[in-house]
């Protein structure tokens, strides 16, 4: 197997170093880490020896084609022996997705997607730029061209065979000017300056906000503040189903792009449900990433049940994979018996995966 190393240089920027084997065609699946945990890229490198089209003097060169495809939605296992699309694991995973679809048809219709794989794609962030390092000029990187929504490509020529391939993959970061704008927005929220809407909670506590900012980041709020909606004229909205501390994190995310307390135990899951209610996809994705990082022996069963209940395919499949990988410890837990009694259909899926 080829030697591949992945390093996150800064938030969202990755360096991938691939030591090639010298074959004319090589393909590897690379799993990222850090801020893009769970994200996988399929990298194909094709190199052909050919006569160079140069003046008079006869010479030769290598024509290479590099193709990078985002494949995280196809498979969540890190076992390279099971990465083939025709493998039993992938087929079973797709069967699980189909079963989830049958049970949750109304949810799929609501999301306007009848394809579980498409929904999984939408939950993964995509690179903003991909470059390949030039083998000749120090610090020169050549950009790959995005040929469709999930595929990047470059064709070029070099004078000698390449032994190491270095890629830089950038998922984007926040620039200083953007940070200044965010800081200003957050200060407006923290100081409750010129708020035009008030959210009132059961304990009579209120939080002010700005309807334009909320509408820009949430289709749910945008619909709420349409002129024909009563709440848009009263500018007071009563919240009865979300705790004030959770709702505050949701508002902070709309102003800043992050939720400072998202990793707190009693915040993450309620915050996801709040983001689902107001259709805030970025916050939902952040919550899922936190839950994936916290997945362990003690909570894997609960995460499987919860992700199935709320139809979160990405978290569901990671939890399913975790349970099967740790089946010996899981089956000895008292909560496993409760799982068998209370969720027989999910238990059947887990058991089928365990015996494969």
TrEMBL record:
Keyword list, A-Z: Metal-binding
Keyword Metal-binding attached: yes
GO CC terms in record: cytoplasm; nucleus
InterPro entries xrefs: BTB/POZ_dom, SKP1/BTB/POZ_sf
GO biological process terms held by the UniProt record: proteasome-mediated ubiquitin-dependent protein catabolic process; regulation of proteolysis; response to hydrogen peroxide; response to salicylic acid
Gene Ontology MF, one: metal ion binding
Limits of the BTB domain: 195-263
Name of the protein in question: BTB domain-containing protein
